[in-house]
């Protein structure tokens, strides 16, 4: 990896200057397809450096300012220290080091996560600087190459049409258990590549759907009911968004050949059969 001193900074805080003066140990953190993530540590400080691959083109400038705005409004997010370009023009962002994901998620954690989500979704459009009020077309943004999968497309268009999509809240766009870290008993939401104005029900449903598939129905339902007990949303509208989330996962599966986990596939099939908004033809064999 290139060192931090090779970064061309677009914006940075004094914390970066302090880091640059120190001897840093660098270690790799486990990351997904679009980025490499590194932990930087000195004797006294730590930080995380995320470097995006060339073919992903995130708006890091937007992400940097959104993190600052959310933190300012009391949402538990990483501190943004600086951003810029690594050699070969890879975009990079430096944030706080915020701990690690939970290895064992209890019922109480699920309830706490509901509060975290509610805290994020309480931020209204009007509290945000107009430059941060960015929306995307929901379907093209979250459903790449959809037209190559007409079965998913037909079902999705109907569901989205019936959902009466709102784009009035700050959404994370990829809430999952890997993106909530814990440090000293405090939760922090990380990985804000997809932050935008969107429908809070989608944000909630994507997370509850993934938990349902990966961890089981019980935990998902604790999260969902804890959230709904403090919100005006109805369970049925979230179920429809869970169906939308499921179609997204099926599409990503076809495109990317994600790792296959027998239990998860069984739970996915079970979900498809039980969810009244989804056609049973989607059951995987
Ligand atoms: N601020 C942080 N503090 C501690 N660990 C972090 C932090 N940011 C990322 N990590 C670690 O690195 C992993 C990958 O980071 P992240 O979730 O941002 O990338 P990703 O899922 O690969 O991203 P993307 O969805 O943008 O491709 C996280 O799951 C976490 O273990
Ligand atoms: Mg992540």
UniProtKB/TrEMBL annotation:
<keyword id="KW-0808">Transferase</keyword>
<dbReference type="InterPro" id="IPR011009">
    <property type="entry name" value="Kinase-like_dom_sf"/>
</dbReference>
<dbReference type="GO" id="GO:0016740">
    <property type="term" value="F:transferase activity"/>
</dbReference>
<dbReference type="InterPro" id="IPR002575">
    <property type="entry name" value="Aminoglycoside_PTrfase"/>
</dbReference>
<protein>
    <submittedName>
        <fullName>Aminoglycoside phosphotransferase family protein</fullName>
        <ecNumber>2.7.1.-</ecNumber>
    </submittedName>
</protein>
<dbReference type="Pfam" id="PF01636">
    <property type="entry name" value="APH"/>
</dbReference>
<feature type="domain" description="Aminoglycoside phosphotransferase">
    <location>
        <begin position="26"/>
        <end position="233"/>
    </location>
</feature>
């Amino acid at each position: 990896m290139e060192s931090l001193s090779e970064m061309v900074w677009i914006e940075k805080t004094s914390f970066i200057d302090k880091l640059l003066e120190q001897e840093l140990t660098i270690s790799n953190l486990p990351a997904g397809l679009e980025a490499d993530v590194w932990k930087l540590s000195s004797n006294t400080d730590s930080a995380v450096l995320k470097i995006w691959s060339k073919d992903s083109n995130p708006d890091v400038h937007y992400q940097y300012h959104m993190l600052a705005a959310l933190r300012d409004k009391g949402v538990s997010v990483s501190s943004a220290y600086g951003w810029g370009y690594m050699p070969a023009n890879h975009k990079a962002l430096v944030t706080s080091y915020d701990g690690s994901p939970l290895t064992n998620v209890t019922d109480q954690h699920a309830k706490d996560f509901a509060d975290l989500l509610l805290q994020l979704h309480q931020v209204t459009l009007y509290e945000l600087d107009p430059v941060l009020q960015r929306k995307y077309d929901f379907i093209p943004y979250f459903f790449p190459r959809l037209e190559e999968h007409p079965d998913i497309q037909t079902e999705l268009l109907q569901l989205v049409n019936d959902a009466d999509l709102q784009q009035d809240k700050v959404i994370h766009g990829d809430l999952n258990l890997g993106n909530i870290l814990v440090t000293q008993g405090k939760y922090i939401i990380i990985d804000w590549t997809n932050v935008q104005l969107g429908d809070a029900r989608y944000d909630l449903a994507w997370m509850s759907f993934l938990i349902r598939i990966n961890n089981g129905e019980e935990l998902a339902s604790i999260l969902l009911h804890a959230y709904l007990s403090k919100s005006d949303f109805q369970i049925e509208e979230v179920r429809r968004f869970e169906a939308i989330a499921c179609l997204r996962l099926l599409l990503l599966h076809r495109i990317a050949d994600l790792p296959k986990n027998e239990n998860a596939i069984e739970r996915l099939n079970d979900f498809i059969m039980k969810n009244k908004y989804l056609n049973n033809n989607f059951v995987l064999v």
